[in-house]
Amino acid sequence: xxxxxxxxxxxxxxxxxxxxxxxxYLRIALEGSTVQGQWDIALRDLDYALGLDxxxxxxxxxxxxxxxxxxxxxxxxxHLTIKTEGETCAHKVLxxxxxxxxxxxxxxxxxxxxxxxxxxxxxxxxxxxxxxxPQHKGLLNLTHGGQTHSAIFSADQDxxxxxxxxxNRTKQFLAYGWEGTWHISIGYDHxxxxxxxxxxxxxxxEGNRWRALASFREASIDVLKxxxxxxxxxxxxxxxxxxxxxxxxSRWVESAIAASVVLAALNNLYPLxxxxxxxxxxxFGLAHGLGFANVLTDLGLPKGSLLVSLVGFxxxxxxxxxxxxxxxxxxxxxxxxxxSYQRMTVGLGSALIALVACVWLLERSLGLSxxxxxxxxxxx
Amino acid sequence: xxxxxxxxxxxxxxxxxxxAIIALAILGGATVEAAPYIPDRDEQVLEQVPxxxxxxxxxxxxxxxxxAQQPSDLSLATQLARGYIEIGRAELDPRYFGYAQAALKxxxxxPSPPPEALVLRAILKQHGHDxxxxxxxxxxxxxxxxxxxxxxxxxxxxxxxxxxxxxxxAHCAALIFLPRSYFLGTVCLGKSLSLSGQAEKASRLLExxxxxxxxxxxxxxxxxxxxxxxxAARLGRSEQAERYFQQAFALGLQDGYLLMAFADFLLDxxxxxxxxxxxxxxxxxxxxxxxxxxxxxxxxxxxxxxxxSLKGRFAASRLRGDKIHLGDEARFTLHLxxxxxxxxxxxxxxxxxxxxxxxxxxxxxxxxxARDPAVAKPVLDALNQSSLEDVRLAAxxxxxxxxxx
Lengths: 380, 405
Known about the structure:
The structure holds two protein chains of two kinds.
Chain A (H helix, E strand, L loop, with lengths): L1 H4 L17 E9 L2 E9 H8 L8 E3 H5 L2 H9 L2 E5 L2 E2 L1 E12 L2 E11 L7 E5 L10 E8 L2 E7 L5 E4 L6 H18 L1 H11 L4 E4 L2 E4 L3 H27 L7 H20 L7 H23 L6 H29 L4 H28 L6 H4 L4
Parallel strand pairs in A: 1-9
Antiparallel strand pairs in A: 1-2, 2-7, 4-5, 4-8, 6-7, 8-11, 9-10, 12-13
Helix pairs in contact in A: 5-10, 6-8, 6-10, 7-9, 7-10, 8-9, 8-11
Chain B lengths: L1 H9 L6 H13 L15 E4 L6 H15 L4 H18 L3 H9 L1 H4 L6 H13 L3 H14 L4 H13 L3 H12 L5 H13 L4 H14 L5 H17 L3 H13 L5 H13 L3 H8 L6 H13 L5 H16 L6 H10 L4 H14 L3 H13 L7 H10 L4 H14 L1
């Protein structure tokens, strides 16, 4: 009785521990349908579970550990289940290593997991040591397409379902749609390209001068042609790139996009193409589509629902585009007669756009970083 | 803006498997000190574990085997759990508390397990700093058996950590009237009195107790002497405090808390060299390593190894979501990382859970260093209310006042 009483005393407010509680570190990187993993498990815990100290001298040597590798892997992976849509994935241990964390030596298992279906959503069920030590925790760190997800497995919560953008297709569709819209709203190069083409849409070139178009219908048809051509073109290349049918170095693509803005803007100052600007929109739209594809790659395309995300993203881009057009067109139509629109906005505006885009072109093609804030203030 | 977008795009190469492995390695670097490797020799020793010849562990292993055959045997289970808790405390290793919990598995989630299991569950919850859970279990225990001294004492100790001395006093008083609990009940009473404005009275009470009961078990005398020493230190009576600490050490018992309290006292007295001599071999224990590192810094010979080691340990603890180190981590962040703002956040989070003088102190110190006295208000209010006598806290409060106005 007295002995037990003493269990309560001392060491209460400030834990005076020489060790930290038991943890394992599970790191998983998801790429395509393969799962690359690394699992660090404390030797002390493995010793308690499996008895690693063969000669009982209180020291675990590499030899003692090495001889038990097969058994350790079998034990560990019988307590870890990775599933995709109800189907269990198979683990393959690639190598056994050793590492030292703050509280001692760990066995490091590098492994690969192959799933019958695309590993998203991924359900991970972790049960290691919970039967022996319910205070044990598994610390998960999962990376996928630039996103990092961390979670803690405990005896109370031994399963984690990892959904990067949700299993819900609608949610995923909306999420990618939003990304598309957001991207076009911050993608100044796309906006400026579109504006360069749209600026003269309410005007008509006659000799060296601009003349205002007589009807809104005429202006709208011009805008419609340009926007449609741009959309069709970038949808084509976006899809081809997302499906990995074409791949171009990002530097080329980004430079081509910058060049397209320069040319489209210069075309307003020194018109080469004035009637068929939709052709320009189409040709350069191809490059812009590849640029969108890069963004999509950054977001990480879930293999299982490629189409949903692709269409969602693309429609998102169109929504952003329509928003720009619906603000631009009525405004431009109203002021199309004015000198300030014809000279200042179209003339000076195009010149500024061309200048900014020239800077981008230099930066992107040569890999320079030009302090370009002075050129940007007008557009921010 | 432009650059940011470009940066994002520039990374957008199709990621190969090799890249994933590199990413994994970099990621690993956050928690791992060195890269994983394959040792060259079979003889290389990787880890020390309790030797198989350890008699206590041998006994417990046999119990574990028997329990595995009949997991619902309450007497076996409590015997095993108690054994593990004792080793955990002796070895300062929380893993054993987990093993103890495993032994109690059939009773762990029950709403009202038998008292033998309930009391151990409460102890384990308390060790895991689940104070609310522990208090619940103990209340159930007291209700079922009002003569359960363990439950009364344990509740009192938690209430003391939470700074609720009025309730704690009542619990200590209840303990005094139970058989064979007079000594511990009186120490308990003395501790609460000493923390609620009656330090003089508490000291007299405990001195008389030690004189009157020379045959009390050494562990219990150790507790009384530790309370006396800490009380004297708070009253600014350094020589007296030192004398009690020495008497406590003279009992010849291993006690982590005593070491820690003495180290804190010596740091306050500006004796860093003595702290270094005292704790030089105690680098395994986080709380003691922290005090050693602070002493080294005061001596002007800060050890990068010790600081790095503490940093890693606090990071690991944060990763697993533990909050039991917040107070020490705040102290580490303030005194060794010189980051008062982060320290203040940590200290305030710690104050939410526990309110002993050292918990108040780190809040005030961090608030002073961050020149942000307003956030220390809850602590200042609590100090006012408890009428705690503590010369060092009083000095801090006095230094905070001019800034507040």
